[in-house]
Amino acid sequence: MTQTDDQGRPEPPLDGDEAGTLLGFLEFLRATFVWKCSGLDAAALNTTVAASSMTLGGMIKHLAYVEDHWFSVCLHGQSQQPPWDTVDWKADSDWDWHSAADDTPERLWQLWHDTVARSRTLVDKALAHGDAGQLALGRGPGGAPTTLRWILCHMIEEYARHNGHADLIRESIDGLTGE
Fold it and tell me: Which InterPro entries match (predicted)?
């Protein structure tokens, strides 16, 4: 049974194996992100802080894109899923960030939840055939081969970095602070 903290986030296992520990921290950081962005309307999700154009809505959509890219495309060598498959990324490399302003909060969260669910399934599928050291079917940065271990660590880093951003933006909206 997974322990949860006061915000309902699953605590990473203290005695897990490699994959269980990495996935435990990724799930904790995903839940932290949801906590930082929860309960906000469209105006709040489009709030910026200082000189940054970053918004929580943009972060939700960006993290959905990153989930699909690393777990569908890189880990399993699949094509990008909708809506990412129709974007001209060369013409607009930040489409995920700024197009979020055109989406409702419900649409953004549905996209993120669906993509995370697909990511979990794809990781389970990979782990059914090997450990975290297995090579991904797609390629990593610069076209180099990478492992599931590297992808999981990268996703932990991605959420940790953006959770810091989300913390600052959320505090500016309604004063919510915490871990």
Answer: DinB/YfiT-like, MST-like
